[in-house]
């Protein structure tokens, strides 16, 4: 896996993945940025949520659950020091669908957390306290 991050100007950078996708990262105005994109630490959090969501949806599809929406709401706390690393991250999955079986949703979230999500497992190995929860919403 490869990626490139190129400085654009001030506190703005353009990241490009090996697969050819690009994202703008920028800092806040008080740090020389123009607030035109997410911060790098936000990108880490988003990557972790994307990784876990991919796992959960993949498993729910394989178990033939009728999912109409899946949202991963993340909340992170950072230490009050430099470097301001993540201390705690909570991932809350809100899964909407028709007649979803709680056992399948619970197991998908557990397997992502314990076995498949490289990003959250890597964070835990680095000392971040990572927790997960889920809510099931019946589709209307």
From TrEMBL:
This is OsmC family protein. Signal peptide: none annotated. PANTHER family: PROTEIN YHFA (PTHR34352). InterPro entries: KH_dom-like_a/b, OsmC/Ohr_fam, OsmC/Ohrsf.
